[in-house]
Specification:
2 helices, about 140 residues, mainly alpha, single chain
């Protein structure tokens, strides 16, 4: 939009310069009245150009402000979305670790119970062997007397 305005202003300026040169020739030829009329038109064109340029500048500033607000809103929205996704991922990770911890605790409890059963069975076996050994010792002692 700036480029279009610059081109329009440049073209207008070129045309105005050409018009000014033509009018100067006419003035030299005795057309003073036309010169005053043209000067007035020149001034009117300059004022009009200034007004239009200022209007365009305000319009452009408003559009940039609008774009900045929109961009800020979109970044805020993206940040909220990112925060939500990370919060979801953290909750999921926490749940998975809690599940793994429960599973590990269950497996350790199961292994402990199994080890206690095996230990008790080995104790019984040792007791039976000890009783058999004691009986055997008593028999061997009785035979050796």
């Amino acid at each position: 939009m700036y480029a279009e305005n610059a081109d329009a202003i440049s073209q207008l300026s070129g045309r105005l310069d050409a018009l000014e040169a033509a009018l100067r020739d006419e003035f030299r030829a005795g057309l003073g009245t036309e010169r005053r009329h043209t000067d007035a038109r020149f001034e009117e064109a300059r004022r009009y150009t200034d007004v239009k340029f200022e209007e365009q500048r305000r319009y452009t500033d408003e559009k940039f402000a609008e774009a900045q607000r929109h961009t800020g809103e979109k970044f805020a929205e993206a940040q909220r979305h990112t925060d939500e996704r990370f919060a979801d991922a953290q909750r999921h990770t926490d749940e998975r670790f809690a599940d793994a911890q429960r599973h590990t605790d269950e497996k350790f409890a199961e292994a402990r119970r199994h080890a206690e059963v095996l230990t008790e069975s080995v104790r019984d076996d040792i007791r039976i062997v000890a009783e058999g050994l004691a009986t055997l010792i008593i028999k061997v002692d009785a035979l050796s007397r």
